[in-house]
Amino acid sequence: MRQKKITENILQWLFAKYLSWIERTVTIRWDEDNCYGDSQIFGFWHEDSFFMNLVLEKLSRKTTPVDVIVTADTRGNYIENMVRRCGGNALRVPDGYKAFTALKKIVQDTYEKTHSLAVALDGPLGPRHEPKKLAFYLSEHAREDFVGVSLSYSSCIRLNRRWDKYVIPLPYTTVSVSVKNYGVVKKSRIPRLPVTAEGMSGHAPRTAAGAAE
To answer: Using the 8-state DSSP alphabet, how is residue 80 labeled?
Structure first.
């Protein structure tokens, strides 16, 4: 157990150092169709989780503080550490039916405090680019706008053996970030969502189908 904890601490330190290096060298190109100010529900693809730490850090300066919904299992420890280092707050939610009580509290909290929420649309374990209903449940019940965030990278490492094809951007890369407001979205009417930033930048869109058009 002690060795496992040491390994976890070393990996968290390495991830944080690499993210700091990326932050110093990256160029971000923003394409925004969103009015900031009120709290919102941000949705992104799980493969972009690493760089989303920096995106959400910057978005929180334009809107309210952003809480990130993170799985309650061991995998969430690494994510929570990264979120905190970027000035955010992680909300640990168990998978499956156990999530219901936690989600009820999250919705209630949105009425009591002005915070935005962020969630990986196809997390925690996929299938890739198939949006689950969590973000839209939160949008519908909290009456908050859903805002989709999609990313593209000029240079990156993609872990193709992982279900999400997790992206690690390389130093001195350019990252395109598209931010689009869909308004309040019901979980029964999930829109088609871009899987890359080009989908909202005038190029041929690559989209993931939602529950309905």
So the answer is: H
